[in-house]
Amino acid sequence: MNFKCRASALGKLMTSPRSKSETLSQTTKSYLEEWVKEQIYGVKKQINSKYLQKGLALEDQAIEFYSVAMDKDFMIKNLDHFEDDFFTGTPDCMHEGIVYDFKTSWDCFTFPLFDQEPDMWYYYQLQVYMHLTGLRKAKLVYTLQDTPDYLTHEEPVSYAHVDNSYRVKEFEIDYDPIVIETAKAKVLECREYVKELLA
Asked: Which residue, among 165, 147, 120, has the nearest Cα to 11 in the 3D structure?
């Protein structure tokens, strides 16, 4: 079993252990134990929530909404999967030398309107995407879309009347080679832990 880290999971590897004598945190170890089980049993752990369902269902719509709102032509969803000796990942979109990751907020209260810094887990995810694609600029983009009726049992809420400037939030992220080198070292440590689990 040759462990490679999915871009979306790098945040789990980058958490610090509680004890200085340890190199891997409990979060990292729990993730690796799940990963090993996935390899042994050939089944991926299913994570299901209404927030995730909305994000997946409206991914194409979010890209289209953003491209119109920001006047960017011909933005299309990326279907290419990237992989090297350490990481794997499928970026949402690559356009004009920038790699994009789109998040669809559940509602206006989870939309990061006032946030000044990107969520670190998504920051790490985009670092991997930049590393794998060779691009050196990234954008983490949140859009606020109406929730489809089949996903909510509450009174429908529409944001169609809201100015687009309050429905799009983007964070620009530059490539950081130090993060990638640190992440590669973590992957090597993770492989040693996987060997221990299988011993």
From this structure: 120
